[in-house]
Design a protein that fits this description.
This protein has 1442 residues and is an all-beta fold. 3% of the residues lie in helices and 52% in strands. Residues 75-143 have a biased composition (Low complexity).
Length: 1442
Amino acid sequence: MFPDSNRGEETKHPADNTSLKDDDAGKGNLTILDQDDLIDSRHDNASSPSNTSRPADAVKDDKQNKVKNETEKASPSNTSENSSSSSNSNSGSSSDNSSPGNSGSGSSSDGSNPGNDGSGNSSDSNNPGNSNSDNSSGSSPGSESGGGSISYPRAQVAFELPATAHTDSEIHVVPTLKYTGSLTWSLTKEAVDGAQTAVELSKAIDGSLTNEGGTITFKESGSYTLTATAVNYGGRETICTKSIIVYPVVDVSFDLPEYTHTDRTVTIATYAKLDGLNIVWSVAKDGEVAQLESIIEGSLGSDGGTVAFKTKGSYAITATVTDATGRSFTHSESVAIFPVAGVAFELPATAHTDTSIELVTSLTEMDGLTAEWSLTKNGEAVAISDAIDGSLTNAVGKIRFKQKGVYLLTAKVTDKSGRAFETKATTTVYPVGAAGFYLPEITHTDTAVTVEATFQNIDTAIAVWSLTKEDKETAIDDYIEGTLTNDGGTIRFKEKGKYVLKAAFTDGAGRTYSYTSTVTVYPVPSLTFQMPATAHTDTNLKIDTTTTEMDRLTVEWLVDNTYGFQDWSTYVDGKLKNDGGTIRFKHAGVYELVARVTDATGRVFLFETGDKIEVHPVLDIRFELTESTYTDRTIDLRTTGNIGVLPIEWSITKNSKTVPFETNVNGTLNAQGGKIRFTEAGEYTLTASMTDALGRTFSYSGTVTVYPISEIQLALPEVAYAGEAVTATVSGSNLENLTVAWTISTDDGDTNPYTDYANGSLSNEGGSITFKAKGSYVMTATMTDVLGRTFSESKAIIVYPIPEIQLTLPQVSYAGEAIAVAVSGNNIDNLSATWTISANDGIAAIYTDYASGSLSNDGGSITFKAKGNYMLTVTMTDTLGRTFYDSRAITVYSIPEIQLTIPQVSYAGEAVAVTVSGSDLENLTTTWTISANDSTAATYTDYAGGSLSNERGSITFAEKGSYVLIVTMTDVLGRTFSESKAITIYSIPDMQISLPQLTYSGEALPVTIAGSELNGLNIIWSMSVDGGTTVPYTQYATGTLGNNGGELRISTDKTIIVKLIATAKDDNGRSFTFVSGTATVKPTVQCSFTIPSSVHVGTNFNVSMKSVSGLEGKSIVWSLTKDGSAASYTGSLNNNGGSIAVGATGTYTLTASVTDDASRVFTHSENVTITNTAPNKPTASATMTRTVKDQKFLVNSTVSSTDPDGDTVIYEYSSQSADGYYAAGSHTVKVRAKDAYGAYSDWTDINFTITNSAPSTPVITRTPNGNSVTPNTLVTITASSTDPEGDAITYLWEGRPSQTSAYPLGKNTVRVKAVDAAGAESPWTAIVFFVADSTNGGGMTLTGPESVILEQGLAGATITEYTFTVPPVSGHSGSDYGRVRGYNVKKGVWDQLDYQTTTNGITFSRTLTAGVYSQLEFYYYTNHNCMYNKSNITYSVTYYFE
């Protein structure tokens, strides 16, 4: 860091170490020489002792030095050099001695001269009477001439230097000299350690310094001291020094390329030696200041950086460094940023000569650039117009490659910098093919079908035959027998279904040509079933069928009863379906079933097995049998049903095993039933059976459960006791599987579950219970079988209670104190009680031997006579003589007496003597407590120091208060005995005074007091400032201080240190002094200013200071913010305000901040609104023309706008084309105005519609126009179309080499569409014709009885006209006929369009409705072979494209 440039300057005498600090920096000082430095005449004028004149050059210097020394202005005591006797009275003389009469003018003296009233005079000694003028003499007192010493005035020198400069600054040094014989210059430079080092002027500066000064420039930076040494005419030196800090000139240069692109980075390298300074970077885009971070990606620091520009434009980058003097060094470089031009398009990997390719070119950042297109075919360059129909521009377009081949299309764009951008795309173009075959619409699985196929341009491809069944792709071999090739074949469908047969081949481009035909295949159904030979009328017969190919067919079932088919519902219950079903014959008889099926073709299928079934009637028998019974009950059984004359057999099973009827049942059963009783328990099934002629047994069974009769015996004691266990036992017969329920009834007649009266558990076998209470009870065991029938047995029992005794008395007591004795318990009524006591483990005796008082059955109250260990026992006897007792022990102690001695008053910190006396104090433990101010007692050490024992002690109370000292003695039982005495303690007050460490002038300075014993004190406050004398605080502060402190306010214009003193006196007149810590009071900084409330953007405005004070050498820091973020401005501000301008609109806050030494920040802010009014919304219009370029139309637009502020306006467009040309359709171009500061108007929509209709569908004219032409015949084919807007029309042909040309043998297809100048295309139109003759062929030659030509059509077209010709053959006459069918796309079927019989050849010609027929089938039949290989069939077709 450079030294502080504001430090004071020093002027030193060469022979004196004393230096004076110059408080008026920059003016220079002269140092007064002491008496030893005076010039003696023996040295200066020895040759002429009487010469009193001055040298000529001194006189000359006096005339030249018109400017007074700056030190004379600064101090009333001017300095010069004199040599004189003490009583010199000559005019102009000066003396070293005190001379109260000196009143001369212009003299100088080394002494203090308060009486000097001459202008510019000073004296070397205290000489108030000196009246000499500007002379120097060596004569004695009273002498005007003669010998003596001569003295010369001290040389005077002063010059000015700026506080700071730079190595490129020219500094003008102008010295002011007086009494100077010679002047020399010297220079020192401050080293790193602070020491001054002499340097040669010639090496340190450019320029030179003479007596007149000079202009210099420092070569290097540093802290320098320039010294001017003036020598008077007596050879004495006077020096003047000035310090200056020289700063280096910062080189912030850097390089930028002339141009670059937005996709490339730029490295900016700086060459500056910054020495801790920072480079501030700024940027302007197209002449407007912009935010750096919005312009670049990357960062720039003091060492530069690598950045990329985000958007195109012309940029100026500026590096600025500001040094400690506030001087800014800048360097700017400009760079043009070009965008990355983008040209992109795609071509399909493959295409065909009939395919128009929608070529969409995506262009970005073109800025008026035009793409250049080039093309190669099979690796060789070709002209685009020769190979492509359509045009290539910057926009969207359609192209079609005319011939097959491999093409490479290139689009290239070169910008102004010469950088090229290009995109390539490759496509392979293939010719167009076709596929077709014939297949009948209906067939069956047992019928062979001939498929006739025709393929065009198949070349080496192999036709792929595929099959879908019910819209699902299938393997063709799974469903077809036979083979299909490029020529077709003969096949048979294996399964029924709806099939679509497809023939397809794929060319090298992956384009597939296919033809499909639908055929429905019907199956042959079959059905088989079986029936049993016999059945009954209750037999449900499950008829299961086995069927095949019955889908969508319905089986009709017939019944024959040997007399022919009968009504089904009369003889059969139930229905049969395709899969059979369940039926039952209603009547006995012999029957046969027949199934009949008719398919969709009307074919009938009968399915007969020839099997017959014999149906027999059903017999019936029933009876009712109860579900359960007992061995003591009789059952009355009766039979019902269709029994007839058949005998009935009765049988029985017991527990699932057959048993003899007679041994288990009493009674008999016949056909009508009977009465029976089962003799033993068990599960029985009774069955009645009869058998018909077919051996079928008809039976009925009933099941009954027979239960036994149970017997119960209950064993229970007659008496018991509550709480004692009682055993109950159950025995008997037939008790298995019974559930038992136990109940108890009381004397009151209540019967409840046994658990209400007893504890324990009872099961089927009995158990153990304990009665809860005394009483007379009856216990009953009730057993229930599965039918709910109950069997029970009861026993009575009497239950007696057992008493419970609880004796209660204290465990300890004291002799002579009554104790309470209580007896409680249960069931102790009507018992008698006796009481005994045993003493010290001795024999028990009647209780009155040891205690007084009385005891009864309920207890009582007794008093033990003496201390000791005792056992008290109560014994109770019931009416049966059974005794019950309880005992309790008690220890009896004696009671002590205590006396406590203590003084009534004492003081905090003084010892107090304490003594204890009394009786029965042995073996007692002592606890001392103190109660303070009637509060709860606490351990004595909480309030006092010292120690206390059982007998005595000494304590010292810590605080004042009213206390009670309590001694508490505790015996072994913990019983306490206490004595207390009161004492009053007085204390000394304490105070702490708290002040904030820092406050400010005029702000509150709170004074708080903390301490103790301050109540009732009278406090007097005083203050000391900066360690000075203590005075009443009101001399320095306002506010009030009292016994509780207060609040002061101190006003000061400088920083001071204050301290408070409080003097307090208590009621006894004792004084106490308390001193606070120090508080620093600093001045409050004022830095308010005014600015306008609003200013137009970019306009300078003044910042005027209103009040500035309290800075104490600090500088105001200025900041500008917008929405809380830092903002920039131009101009400069300092402690005096200034002028600035803001370059962007918005509401800003300008803030002046000053931070004092305590880091407190004082601020003042003012708001200013930077305004800018946006331009007015433009008015605009568009004018359409029919001028066409690249299939687009020229549109001219007119735009106008004004700016309210008068700013320059430019226009920005959205959706505007680069060249003003637009495709047909509706367009909206938006335009807005932008002023010089970036304010935008609203968008204005320019709406316009360019209409363009496609040309009409061309009409093709072919000459000659017959079905066919002979080979090598020139055929002229033309087309005509009209355009609604009158635009020029071109025709796009396929299959036409030229307007007039000879066509190849066979079928020829030619199609054409019209295209206007804007690229609007009409639908295609096409014709088909043949080149053929009887010699060379060319059409289809008859080779058999049936000939079929399939015209498969063109994609997207329907047929509107056809001609079909089978030329006659000489000599032929047969039963021929011809037919034309068309595939109706609306119905999805083939319609017959023409049919006619003939004897020799035929011609059909028809005009069709457009949009109906897409394919034609031409058919001719002849029954004579005389036409074979002779007739050449041809046709022509006209197509219509939607």
